[in-house]
Amino acid sequence: MATSVWDSKGLLLIDYLPPKTTMNGHYYASLLLKLRDAVKEKRRRMLTRGVWLLQDNAPMHKSMIAQEAVRDCGFVQLDHPAYSPDLAPSDYFLFHNLKSHLRDVRYPDDEVLKEAVKEWLEG
Questions:
Q1: Could you tell me the CATH number of the domain that includes residue 71?
Q2: What is the pLDDT at residue 98?
Q3: Is the CB of residue 8 less than 8 Å from the CB of residue 46?
Q4: Residue 97, class by beta-carbon neighbours within 10 Å (0-12 exposed, 13-18 middle, 19+ buried)?
Q5: pTM tops 0.85
Q6: For residue 24, is it left (φ>0), alpha (ψ between -120 and 50) or beta?
Q7: Domain that holds residue 65
Q8: CB 37, CB 45: distance < 8 Å
């Protein structure tokens, strides 16, 4: 499973869930800390102006530890409407195009596949 975070200028962070690991509030909170570090590295001025975080209502996003990490990082959370029938743009456009790009290609191992995904996302 891959988690990708981007802004209007491009990809900020991509993280791959290690095998036999479950995405939960603790793991998601650690991702938010990685995101804060990525913003510091790639978009330093963004932290002073404020980072708005838009995420869906997945249980790991709403967990207490994840909400605390959002506050600790200084992010402003934009709430996704509960039970919204709207798809996130990434669900419709991004991942459909990525899957089409990767279709019918055999990758020798996970690292080569991860690099191909990263190159496509950054392109």
A1: 3.30.420.10
A2: 84
A3: no
A4: exposed
A5: no
A6: beta
A7: 2-122
A8: no
